[in-house]
Amino acid sequence: MPIYEFGCPSCGGVTTELCKIGEKGAQLRCEECGNTGLIKHISGFASLGVRGGAGSGNCSPGCSGNCAGCH
To answer: Is this prediction's pTM over 0.90?
Structure first.
């Protein structure tokens, strides 16, 4: 199951929940104020690999940031 962030329309608090893909947040409760009916946020994600495109991370020394050339 994926982890989603939900925001509280009442206090602005953000709650992170492990839930099913179709979860809308209507039955979830805010951890800060107790309000029910949270709103799903669009959040970023993390990726392991090239950091900054300058050949760092797991890339070889000659990597130009395009891992197709070094992996």
So the answer is: no
Range of the domain at 38: 1-45
DSSP letters along 39-66, please? EEPP------S-STTSS-TTS-TT--S-
pLDDT digits (tens, 9 = 90+) for 3-15: 889 999 999 999 8
**Residue 58 is assigned to a structural domain of this protein:** no
Q: What is the pLDDT of residues 17-37, one digit of tens each?
A: 888 888 888 999 999 999 999
Per-residue CA distances from 59 to 6, 16, 19, 40, 65 (Å): 36, 33, 34, 36, 8
